[in-house]
Write a structure and sequence with these properties.
Layout: E1 7-16, E2 19-29, E3 34-38, H1 45-53, E4 60-65, E5 68-69, H2 75-78, E6 83-85, H3 98-111, H4 117-122, H5 124-136, H6 152-165, E7 170-174, H7 185-193, E8 200-204, H8 208-214, E9 217-222, E10 225-230, H9 232-237, H10 239-254
Parallel strand pairs: 3-8, 3-9, 6-7, 7-8
Antiparallel strand pairs: 1-2, 1-4, 4-5, 9-10
Helix pairs in contact: 3-5, 3-6, 7-8
The structure holds adenosine-5'-triphosphate.
Residues 16-17, 19, 21, 39, 41-47 line the site of adenosine-5'-triphosphate.
């Protein structure tokens, strides 16, 4: 018996203001898979993640998560099936400390409620778990600093730690390496590699270093449609992909900027 896919897109299209942004996209992501979605600027990658997460309704087609048709569910209801998305800008509580951000994420995960500070302080087990997450993510040194005072790379790390702490079954990462310094990328790649395999990850990313070290399979979008889909080796050898995107992106990689 084959496992129920983590994500199925069936003929998904998205039109905004008469403009076709996504056209007839079908793809299947297996449980535990690491899928990267790459393509030139404006190819439709972020729009696709927003359609999967429910922030934008599909104009046509179906979105199925772990066998459940979520096409008509709003984003907050898709969280109940274990789906979480990060944004290009870190979504963190700026006025709260790093520790408070992690505590709130853990409480939300437990109770599926927005945690209040009073509840946070009373829950010892959650506090212990927060210390573990802070240590795991190298955030202990900044745990009592309000996030708004932290550099962008740290804010990104706080966001990812908070999202991962929620233990989503399907995690959508929108350019998680954006804003990280070049010397922060290897540790970030290492962190991604340690994610548990019961978590399925769909990653949109321009850094080819991150994509090729992380992905089991890669889907290439071009002008809102799937140009190619395959293993990293297949994608690297694909001449259409080379012409449309990869040659330029890999030059950036070799220059150390990607
Ligand atoms: N709300 C909108 N209204 C009109 N056009 C939009 C809207 N959102 C996105 N677009 C257009 O849709 C196309 C795809 O945008 P999208 O942000 O999904 O691309 P992307 O592949 O994520 O690009 P990038 O790599 O630059 O982030 C672009 O041409 C963009 O201008």
């Amino acid at each position: 018996m084959t496992a129920v896919p983590a994500l199925q897109l069936e003929h998904v299209s998205k039109t905004i203001g008469g403009l076709t942004i996504l056209e007839d996209i079908s793809l299947t992501v297996q449980p535990g898979e690491r899928r990267a979605i790459i393509g030139p600027n404006g190819a439709g990658k972020t729009t696709l993640l927003n359609v999967i997460a429910g922030f934008l309704p599909a104009t046509r087609g179906r979105v199925i998560v772990f066998g459940r048709d979520v096409t008509r569910l709003p984003a907050h209801r898709r969280v109940d099936v274990g789906l979480l998305k990060t944004n290009q800008q870190p979504a963190v509580f700026q006025e709260l400390t790093t520790r408070q951000n992690i505590l709130i994420a853990l409480l939300r995960g437990r109770h599926r409620l927005l945690g209040l500070t009073g509840q946070v302080n009373s829950d010892r087990a959650v506090q212990r778990e927060a210390e573990r997450v802070l240590e795991e993510w190298g955030l202990l040194d900044v745990s009592d600093i309000e996030v708004r005072h932290l550099p962008h790379g740290y804010q990104r790390r706080v966001e990812l730690a908070a999202r991962f702490a929620l233990r989503p079954r399907l995690l959508l990462l929108d350019e998680p390496a954006a804003g990280l310094a070049v010397d922060e990328i290897p540790a970030f790649i290492e962190r991604l590699a340690q994610l548990p395999r019961d978590m399925t990850v769909v990653l949109v990313e321009h850094s080819m270093r991150v994509v090729f070290s992380f992905a089991d399979r890669i889907t290439v979008l071009h002008h809102g449609a799937v140009l190619a889909d395959g293993t990293p080796d297949e994608i690297q050898r694909n001449e259409d992909v080379q012409a449309a995107y990869l040659a330029g992106a890999m030059r950036g990689r070799n220059a150390g900027t990607a």
